[in-house]
4-oxalomesaconate tautomerase
Amino acid sequence: MPGTEGIPCLLMRGGTSKGALFLASDLPADPAERDDLLLRIMGSPDPRQVDGLGGAHPLTSKVAVISPSPDAGADVDYLFLQVAVDTALVSSRQNCGNILAAVGPFAVERGLVQPADGQTEVRIRMLNTGSMATARFATPGGVVDYDGGPAAGGAVAIDGVPGTAAAIRLNFEGTAGSSTGALFPTGHVMDRADGVDLTCVDNGMPTVLMRAADLGVAGDEAPADLEANAGLAQRLAGLRLAAADLMGMGDVSAATVPKLVLLAPPREGGAIATRSFLPVRVHTSIGVLGALTVAAGVLAEGSVGHDLGVLPSPGEPFRVEHPSGHFDVEVSIEATPDGYTVTRSTALRTARKIFDGRVFPRP
């Protein structure tokens, strides 16, 4: 029984998130049984998650389930599961690009991929959307370098994470994936709901972009201040439901997507300033797929953020400002007869192995 023997688990930081990573073969095959087990492993539902691995915040209550891929174009399959903190909910309706940064190293750690002596590339199929990504990272002597030695090109820092670590480059094949089936799911770069202009966009993360000023805020507030704004929360909850209906997503009242992002002119030399809602808690930075989606949405002419932003010159990164700094991504879009298509999506992240052992779920 799992309660007496424990379950093999690798606890990792991926980007600005933290999660528990498992081999699919170590978890129940039945999704309902698996989700029940994961709730007990993470300590949900409980605001503190005191009886499990979760860190009492959506960014630290994440799970990745990884297996060898039957797809000839991929090395491993990656299923992301968002475990709610204070409700008994496990959702597979979104990807997570931050935890994605940990998937390649996990695949090497668990023997799913044979590493090279130098740099290793792992092709990852993201089961949540069916999209593909390649993670490239340093493996001197066939061992993952988490710290950032010479083989990794030195250590790098990412805003929102203390210290430095080895770089992990995430390359997506054009689009970073769309769970709604289109870059602009409504068929327009601009919509309107409840008197507010919206851009509904999905370059890997279904997202609703809005001008912060249209909601009566500046867009540079601290996350805690935005979370304490009860009037704003009520307004955003209604707008999220309306936007999801426009996007064809159905009833999302119990879902974690679409996300909401308030946009403002950049303050620190970037392209755009952001405040991201998850959808209630406010991100202390911004997710990988969130940043890639914001960039695609702002680059499109006629979107809510296009005239707010200071767009980069060709070949320069798109710098997304967030509460703890900035996040540089590389995104290119092209106009087509049907709207826009993404031709490039790349992000730089880091990851770290925190604990490797067995986890014992509560009964």
Q: What stands out?
A: The chain has a mean pLDDT of 95. The helical segments are 2-5, 31-42, 97-109, 223-227, 230-246, 288-299. The CA atoms of residues 265 and 308 lie 5 Å apart.
